[in-house]
Specification:
The complex is a heterodimer of chains A (122) and B (219). Chain A is an all-alpha fold. Chain A contains four helices and no strands. Chain B is extended. Classes of the chains: A mainly alpha (122), B mainly alpha (219).
Amino acid sequence: MHLVYPAVLAALLFSVGVYGVLARRNVVLVLMSVELMLNAVNLNLVAFDAWLRDSLHAGQALTLFTITVAAAEIGLGLAIVLLVFRTSGTADIDRLTALGDPNEDTAEPETAGASENKAAAV
Amino acid sequence: MLLATAGPLDPATRSFLSPTGVEVVFLLVGLAVLGSAVITVTTKQLVHAALWLVVSLGGLAIEFLLLTAEFIAWVQVLIYLGSVVVLVLFGLMLTKAPIGRSPDADSGNRWVALGVALAAAGTLVTLVVDAFRTSWVDLGAGGGSTKVTGESLFRHWVLPFEALSVLLLAALVGAIVLSRTRDKRLPRPRAGKLRAGKPVGSNGPAARVTASTTPPQES
């Protein structure tokens, strides 16, 4: 097989992922586009591993590592997205412009009580 | 026998005009992968985007099989189709994604994004075609079978493998810590202390303060 086929497919898939990351608004869809980009990299790694016939199979080992890291990334990313959705009420990237919690004033006594409880527990 | 350099040294023997069967299948599956990926990033229905992602990732598993990376293909099916897509669907549902068509799925700067993506695609494809036009992958059967991959993984890559398990554990703990709800509740009993005769959370100054601030609850 010509090496051009998997390499071009990986390049095009990566570009599709770049478009998705830049153009999407929902955070979960951005994460899906990131998965597409990671898969393009995986395809490149596997193709070059088959081309170079590496005796250590570094390409395939690295692909396995990438898949595992992507699984960990999507788990943590979705946990963060759910936390952001719970605090600010939206999963829209364009509306998440402030770093701080918008209703921090109302949450002040709760955090005081929580710290008090923590101090009592210690 | 220098197998690694056998590819680039015989450029004239292989033509693009007479593709082999593997190449034809690779091309067709690749078109399906690209099409479903494009639908994934452009569709207005958010749940459909996740389902088209399934098609794209499954097609990539077939591409891995065609590249003789058998074990990677099944890991791809297990992890991506099995867990990542399910997690993404859970994320879409838990963030109250609209089921029907949502007109604001795409950001306002989508034309800039399209320009950037087209520029990246043009640059990368030009570069890759120019660099690997004559390279030939000599696909041997069993190059990425479970036996070969397992041997290389547990002989040469043991330490990264174990570090990866630590990373997975840290990610698991982090996800649990992040997604824990921090709402107000009664203090739980501390471990190692017997509380005979008293209801849970009715002793200690902190509990009394919380009980005075919180509205009275039925016992």
